[in-house]
Amino acid sequence: MRTPVGLIMAALMAAAAVQAFAPRETPALAVTRLAVEKLHLNTIARSKAGLVTAGELGTVLYSTNQGRDWQRAAMPVQRQALINQISFAGDGLTGMAVGHEGWILRTTDGGLSWEEVAFDEQNGEPLMGVGRLPSGSWIVVGAFGRALRSDDAGNSWQRLVLPKTGDALDDKHMNRVVGSADGRHWLIVGERGLVLRSDDGGEHWAAVEPFYKGSLYNAAALPDGNWLAYGMRGNAFVSQGAQGSWSRSTLPVPTSFFNHAVLPDGRLLLVGQGSLIATSTDGGNSFGISRAKGRATLTDIQVAADGSGWITSDAGLQALPQAQSAQPPADTGAKP
């Protein structure tokens, strides 16, 4: 009896070994969901590939389905540096991203993948804004008067010569460079009321007579040819034409605002501290206040042709509320 039992046990062990090493299909892994509602994101832009957003620790994400799902963009090197702005050229494929430590990234596929074109860990000031001139050149601006220009699609960068202002330009942070729809008129705005203007596509710059002593965080070229410059503690100003005088806008809260969008119906939105959204229906001369979710600092906004949109913040990404109130809430809870 021992021989048959031994044979049976040997057969069972052989069958088990065959089963253990036999090829088999691995069950599909569950889809990993990126927690975009928890990331610190500073910028969001639309490209030919979809939506692209970026922020903390060098994170760059893209969505090809209007923000329902997000994926990490391909990056050859990870610097862990904060990204402040992404901007795309008119083709919707070529773009630049700028951030801390003089970091500049370039994409040629609408933001799906990026390559590093500049980084200076030792002496790199934070870069805050980037724009593409109608000539095809790119310019970036940042802290301590840092301004660079590239005439070869970002392969090399040279110092951008800017005019001297009343006090030393080298001591002023420049927060954004913004162009008009036709690419002819440009503004650079920064701290202590800095405004530089170009009326020849960014080739030459002149200092605008100061009309405000605080920090300006951004500017908007309005459809009527006017400009809106805005920033610290609810201060916003509208120009009369490209080279006209500036007058103060009416903003009912002392809240800093950082970015803007124009809705399909012409309303102008500003986003800022305390999850507040300022809405203007008169070309930026006056604003009403509403609130998005939470109490975050809203950093950027992107609106689609159908009026839907996304807002970035230091507490993550959220959808633009469907309706924007023109009346201020009873208690904004905003802090200057």
Nearest-integer average pLDDT? 87
How many helical elements? 1
N-to-C series of helices and strands: HEEEEEEEEEEEEEEEEEEEEEEEEEEE
Strand content: 35-45%
Q: Give the proportion of residues in helices.
A: under 10%
Uncertain stretches: 5-32, 324-336
Shape label = globular
Query: What's the story with the biggest beta sheet?
Result: 4 strands, antiparallel
Structural class: mainly beta
Beta strand count: 27
Gyration radius over CA = 25 Å
Notable characteristics:
6% helix; 1 helix; single chain; mainly beta; 4-stranded antiparallel sheet; globular; 336 residues
Report on the architecture of this protein.
6% of the residues lie in helices and 36% in strands. The chain contains 1 helix and 27 strands. It is globular, with a radius of gyration of 25 Å. The relative contact order is 0.10. A 4-stranded antiparallel sheet has the order 1-2-3-4, with no helix packed on it. Strands 5-6-7-8 form a 4-stranded antiparallel sheet, with no helix packed on it. A 4-stranded antiparallel sheet has the order 9-10-11-12, with no helix packed on it. Residues 5-32 and 324-336 have low confidence and may be disordered. A hairpin with a 7-residue loop joins strand 23 and strand 24 (288-291). The longest helix has 20 residues, at 2-21. It is mainly beta.
